[in-house]
Amino acid sequence: MADLAVLFDSLEDAGGSQTLIRLNGFIKRLSPARADDVRDLSAEDAGALCRLFHTHIREAAHVADESRLEQQQPPSDELLTEVRQSLVTHVGVIDGVLRVGRSLCAGRPESQRCLREAGLAEMLVDSLDTLVAVLAFWQHVQAGRSDDSLMPKVQRSLITFFINLVTANDINQSHLWKLVYPWRSVKLALIAGSPSHMFMLLHNISCQSAERRAALAAEEGTQVLYLMYSAAVHHAAAEEGQGQGGSDEWVSIFSHAWWRQPGAFESLFRCVMRLDDDELQLIVLRQLDPPPLSPQPHTPNSSGGTSSSMDRFRSHPVRARWIMERLKHLIASQRDMAAYLLAMLEAFVEEEWRERNDDGGGGTTLLQTMVADGSLMAFLFSLIARALTDVCRPAHRRPFLPFPPDTDTSPPAAPAAEEDACSLSGCLRPLARTAILLTSSHAWLASADDGDHHHHRHSVADGLIRSIVSFLDCHHSLRLRAMVSRKDRRKREREREGGGAEGDDRDVVERVWDEVSEEVSCRDLIRVVANLLHDDHRMQDTCREIDGLRVLLNHTLSDEKDPLMKESSIFAIRNACHTNAVNKSAVRQLLSGSFQGVIEAPDELMAALERPAAAAEDGGGALLEDMVRARIDGRGVSE
Question: Where is the Ataxin-10 domain (predicted)?
């Protein structure tokens, strides 16, 4: 193959269309099967690539100068065609340069070093405002045309070039981090075609640096991640609507590794609860406002900078509309974001739970982090209490669900500044399932014998069990009222049989019951209580003191809206009575006469009290062994 520097120099001397043709021909020879035949880039090769990029980004900015269109109102078809063809040529060359750089630096430390020293990364970062303006202008001149494959190509090439530039190269990782963190990464997110690529870049930059991971957990970092995760939420929703899924694996890989840090998930979730959508948009828009152009010493052009026509893009409405449109598709609602993050947390915890492997010294699992650090466990339990409160928060529900009934049984609440920012009423199910897995894990059970963790574990568990028992008591009262209401309604239906169309004849109690039943799974809440009671005499006594035994007995009935609730309640009562004679006596006394609740099969329950308590509850009841943490190294992106 010809010397690369000679080839790139010849591309500089060619016209725009000829450059694009020759560059595409060279890219075809960079297939993975033939990539080994191409030598590493030299300093001269990297310099030639930089000059080629600079020439065509400047020309693209000149073509995208909207003043040419403003001279003709409306612009002629000939002018629009000319503008489109010019943009296709120059942006196509830019895309080609990025693809060549991406292919020749993948797994090649020498090529990565030459491109860094030549300043291509700086040129790309400094040109982000220009690229945003060109993308906005391209969308404007396309005017609804269906053929819009050019911009997604250059968007993907840009982000994947950065990925390959930093993969397995700590010097390049540190260099790019200084260039883009924190708010230039937001511009990258606006330009990147897929959130998975953006998370792949974040993972490759931060996976081997504790300092950079800690920076992402700081306030500015969590605001940036809020935006990145919001893009993933919208992307996942769009894929679900199209019957697709599974393309955002790097969102999960980054999250799984990063959330193992103490405080990482908590800081991000608090950011979600604290910032509303409008406030986040204002923060992003302020950071996207580009600074004045300054000379770029790394640029081959001695005049420095890009075209002076770019000054007009700073406040031009086309660019502003494009950014606002992108923000609409990047910032999800707080409730969607909260549900998305909690669903991911549940999935990660369940994955580790089901692996059942010892850690073996390979690192710390998320479950171990949650138990050992304590703050995330306490935060998770406070979120459950907060979600239970939010279920009862709407005004029309307060007469039927007066929870919590008094301050003595109220759990520790989230900080007041965050209380009204985001409702968690729709997040109770993943929270409860995560708590089930956490409290049945090997790490949790082992902490019972650890003097350092036992006191903290008991204090957070005490608040949680009080909150759940109080809610279950109120919930059961609502169930009884709904049962009476349903019975009366059926009686009225029989009396007016044959009376024609009836419509929705439910009264307000039934409607509230149906709404709450959609959000709450008593079975899951009771399973959390059962795990908290397992082999913990203090928690067993607490359950009796707060009248929890009566509440659990009230739930030993079948409910078509909540299958297995009866079995979960029997399980919890058995754990409450295990090696606790006082609790056994209290349950027998309730069953023999003083019990005023509803219960099915009391004989079955009495027989269950004589059986030994299970260790923990999750399907078959086996315990979790900690998962072996597989170290995930960043991968590059091939051509």
Answer: 523-591
